[in-house]
Amino acid sequence: xxxxxxxxxxxxxxxxxxxxxxxxxxxxxxxxxxxxxxxxxxxxxxxxxxxxxxxxxxxxxxxxxxxxxxxxxxxxxxxxxxxxxxxxxxxxxxxxxxxxxxxxxxxxxxxxxxxxxxxxxxxxxxxxxxxxxxxxxxxxxxxxxxxxxxxxxxxxxxxxxxxxxxxxxxxxxxxx
Length: 176
Description:
7 helices, 176 residues, 62% helix, Lysozyme, mainly alpha, 7% strand, 3-stranded antiparallel beta sheet
């Protein structure tokens, strides 16, 4: 590296440090001014807002980017997996595809609609104890109100549960 390149590198390094310092100061100030809200709320301008002043309102808001949505999804998947593993300690005895079916169900059903999941887990327990078959688990999944609500999603997941394989989904449509 010659002297000119070294000087440019050092200049760039100092500029980056200054940028980091400025970001830290500004983000601390915005945190104090905006506050942090875990759940969406209406700000003083009556806009749907979340986090530290993030305007997600459809009219004039920034919403979230695809990268931000994927970041949130990754966190949600980890959270749902942990909760499912606590509720169903034998989760790790299943192959990855069937684990994913159950995680998908937990993600979709939420905390207040667990009847179908409970019956499904009971049937999975029977399979693990050699007292049932995967086909029966998929039938249980399709027998409740959840399957009627999510239609193609339920069919796809039930098929995955039955076969233990991800397949191209022929069940989903825009209305599922």
